[in-house]
Amino acid sequence: MINLKKIRKEKHYTQEQIGILLDVSKSNICHLESGRSMLNQEQIIKLCKALNCSADYLLGLIEEEKND
């Protein structure tokens, strides 16, 4: 989750709020942001919808979010 922390802060979410959304602990979100843990496909989709971003951007596959 290369860009999770960046996107989360831009959208003014706390780690706890993201954890509640994904039904995981705050420490799990910390692990995601540091690259020590990964989400499953369903969780990635849920997170992208909530943060209004693409999976490619969230995962760091593209450098900028495309705003069409």
Into which percent range does the helicity of residues fall? 55-70%
Radius of gyration: 11 Å
- Contiguous uncertain segments of 5+ residues: none
Which band does the percent of strand residues land in? under 5%
| Strand element count | 0
Q: What value does the average pLDDT take? A: 93
Give the N-to-C terminal Cα separation.
23 Å
Structural class: mainly alpha
Note the total helix count: 5
Main sheet specs: none
The best one-word shape is globular
What does this structure look like?
- The chain has 68 residues and is an all-alpha fold.
- 56% of the residues lie in helices and 0% in strands.
- The protein contains 5 helices and no strands.
- The chain has helices at residues 4-10, 15-22, 26-33, 41-51, 55-58.
- α2 crosses α3.
Summarize the structure.
This protein has helices at residues 4-10, 15-22, 26-33, 41-51, 55-58. By secondary structure, the protein is mainly alpha-helical.
What order do the helices and strands come in, and which of them pair?
Blueprint: H1 4-10, H2 15-22, H3 26-33, H4 41-51, H5 55-58
Key features?
single chain; mainly alpha
